[in-house]
């Protein structure tokens, strides 16, 4: 898999932050869970998701 | 529970019969029967009818004097209709019940999933039927009481039992007193609170899942087809789920989930049940009249005995396993237990099989229960998520399903796959040269034949061999050999012509559809068990099914 260009990713970073604010603190978790499921469904290999989950769980 | 002012058996639509206690002579000699069945519920009666089909006598003891009160199971699966059909009792069930194929799931009032259960022209029965348990019991009782091999003793409670040489002594109490009766085998079909299980000192093991439901039956004229509706987070039950099923006689079943920590006694009060039902009906836009028939509370458990057998006692149905309702497998698995032990026990009692055949009962039927546990736990975890994370993901899937249809699949109850006996000691190793078709241990596909009948109609009462293509020389001696092992054995020749006899049937297959469904080329052989599972399959090898049958029947001398 090739990663997106950094300035695109920077845009996504901004958008995520704004969208979490739009969802509101109470619905933020639901919003992110939906997003994760939606993006996971775009991927072919479940291992990609598992690895990402492990990485994200680190250093919380 | 029933509304205030109505007795336990005061149903809006069902007449409960009253059965008299048996007339006994107090000085009668000690009786001995081949099989004593404790419990006259659907599972016990399927076992009695299966034994009777092979001419084996049984006495059914039931401590009550009528059928189960209230409403219990309502969904009967296709596999169970095949069992009823084999027992020759399906007709009243087909006439009364409501067949269905479709389920709909809603989230906050919006449709997120409509699923179709596998169905097609080749299937003799619908994937699922709705019918109140009272009718199930009545139809089975009507069939069983017409059989000379089955004797009913109502108002007769099993009080104690002890092992004797080659049997069990059962102590039974009825209004006339207590007496002892000897049985070669005992079937404990005495339900979730099985007294026999207690007497044997056995325990159900497993876990209690999250989630309690109130289940209520009501009568109303409500115009909606027989489609199972699952409402997630509906306005009438925020954060919870509601299930709605149509039943015959304008009776509707609603199941609604209680909140964690919600007081059960309070929830079960008539006024509270009425208020909740009214708000559910308002959610589904029913503004007509309705009457409350019955209600109860239910919690999801996955519990089973470690061994369904204790000496000469076999546990069948709820006495052996408690499964969550979402999989609709409680009654259906019980019915399959009854048939499974029935055909095996009949053959052992008649001396046609060795005792080893009975050793397959627990692995096959407990395996089926564990399979239900796995599926139902998945369902239950979705319906009633046990943790913050699982609840969040469930809500995410439901919310996503409103705009991304793929997520609707999470709301599919997956209730229809028949259990597979591939790991059973009775199942033969597969011939790897078959590319597709039903593997040993599975249930063969339905096939509608050219004359409008179904392949399953051609199967015999006992074991059946399907032979594809013109039979080879030696088929007569093969059939004779198989009949020596199983006097009701039948050979079904598919795709060739010949004269039907008791032991051999011929079925045309001009378009090769049947052969295709079995991935069969000429010379292919399938051995089908009396309960319609594939025991094994071979190519051009008549010795294969003969050796397999001898092994299955624990008849080494004939192999």
What does this protein structure show overall?
- The complex is a heterodimer of chains A (60) and B (559).
- Chain A is 75% helix and 0% strand.
- With 60 residues, chain A is mostly helical.
- Among the domains of chain B are: 216 residues, FAD/NAD(P)-binding domain, CATH 3.50.50.60; 104 residues, Glutaredoxin, CATH 3.40.30.
- Chain B contains 14 helices and 24 strands.
- In chain B, strands 1, 2, 8, 9, 10, 11, 17 and 18 form an eight-stranded mixed sheet that branches. In chain B, strands 6-5-13-14-15-12-16-19 form an eight-stranded mixed sheet, with helices on both faces.
- In chain B, helix 12 links the parallel strand 20 and strand 21.
- At the A-B interface, helix 2 of A face helix 10 of B.
The Cα radius of gyration of chain B reads 25 Å
Number of DSSP helical runs of chain B:
14
Proportion of residues in extended strands of chain B: 25-35%
Order of helices and strands of chain A: HHH
According to CATH, the homologous superfamily of the domain at 31-97 and 129-205 and 302-373 in chain B is FAD/NAD(P)-binding domain
The secondary structure category of chain B is: alpha/beta
Q: State the total count of DSSP E strands of chain A.
A: 0
Reported for the largest beta sheet of chain B, the result is: 8 strands, mixed
- Tell the overall outline of chain A: globular
CATH topology of the domain at 31-97 and 129-205 and 302-373 in chain B: FAD/NAD(P)-binding domain
Q: Percentage of helical residues of chain A?
A: over 70%
How many domains make up the 3D coordinates of chain A?
1
CATH class categorisation of the domain at 31-97 and 129-205 and 302-373 in chain B: Alpha Beta
Give Rg of chain A in angstroms.
13 Å
Itemize the secondary structure elements and their pairings:
The complex is a heterodimer of chains A (60) and B (559).
Chain A: H1 6-23, H2 28-42, H3 46-57
Chain B: E1 31-38, H1 42-53, E2 58-61, E3 75-77, H2 78-86, H3 90-96, E4 98-100, E5 102-107, E6 110-116, E7 128-130, H4 133-145, E8 150-153, E9 157-164, E10 167-174, E11 177-188, H5 195-199, E12 205-219, E13 228-232, E14 241-247, E15 251-257, H6 264-267, H7 270-283, E16 291-304, E17 309-310, E18 313-315, E19 321-322, H8 330-349, H9 361-383, H10 388-401, H11 455-458, E20 464-468, H12 475-485, E21 490-494, E22 504-507, H13 513-517, E23 524-528, E24 534-539, H14 543-552
Parallel strand pairs in B: 1-2, 1-11, 2-8, 5-13, 11-18, 20-21, 21-22
Antiparallel strand pairs in B: 3-7, 4-7, 5-6, 9-10, 10-11, 12-15, 12-16, 13-14, 14-15, 16-19, 17-18, 20-23, 23-24
Helix pairs in contact in B: 1-4, 1-8, 8-9, 12-14
